[in-house]
Fold:
Amino acid sequence: MRKYIVAGNWKMNTNLPEGEKLAGDIMSLLQQRNFDLTRYGVIIAPPYTHLYRLSQIIDNSKVRLGAQNMGWEEKGAYTGEISADMLLSVGSEYVIIGHSERRKYQKEGDELLLKKISLALSKGLKPIFCVGEELADREAGRHFDIVKSQIVNVIYHLVPEDMQKVIIAYEPVWAIGTGKVATPEQAQEMHAFIRQIISDKFGNQVAQDLTLLYGGSCKPANAQGLFEQKDIDGGLIGGASLKAQDFVTLLDMLIEAKK
Ligand code: PGA
Structure:
């Protein structure tokens, strides 16, 4: 069954006390809500340094923890890297792989991302795999080709059983942190396209069960139209996930839209 999810990507924001406060605020807002945990999910991906502490603060039944990145090797002489085992040992269940900021600043490409996603899955971490085109690609009409190649070069190497654990987030790079959100029609068109590509390789059932998130300046002011689209199953939220009220409002809106 398809799950609807809001995932907060905190990026490089909050020190530990600020992160504890934000997680605590999210928890108290969620305490006032009852939602079907088999249909809806809430994930927060704070900085690595917060994971262990936040795993103690959150009520695991309502909020799940994710990391924003992961090393590509199991262990060894990779100074500064964080392994899948380390993430699991501090309470992470999810890991974001291939965020556009890492593709851009750390030059992470398909080959490396395939290593990371395969390792994450083999260790039992659930990947949130990000795809999305840059503005120039969209303006040149290449956006479908770009997103297709990002999926074919990585996701097509997985086996169908893995797909039950994978979440894909479509994040047009031109919409991330810019305040410029994709229209519901643009986002739906791409989400339907992605679901079709997944169906072509893994079959219709896998594609129908896949959680497909939209990301890029998604906030309460614009989420309704997005969440109402039939192939948009929630959001990967950056800026708005740093405000507890906005983040939980997005969950409320998602639940309302998918009733
Ligand atoms: P944004 O970030 O919501 O701040 O645009 C989304 C993301 O990068 O995941």
Residues 4-257 form a domain with the TIM Barrel fold (CATH 3.20.20.70). The chain has a mean pLDDT of 97. The pocket of 2-phosphoglycolic acid is lined by residues 9, 171, 176-177, 215-218, 236-240 (CB under 6 Å). The chain has twelve helices and eight strands.
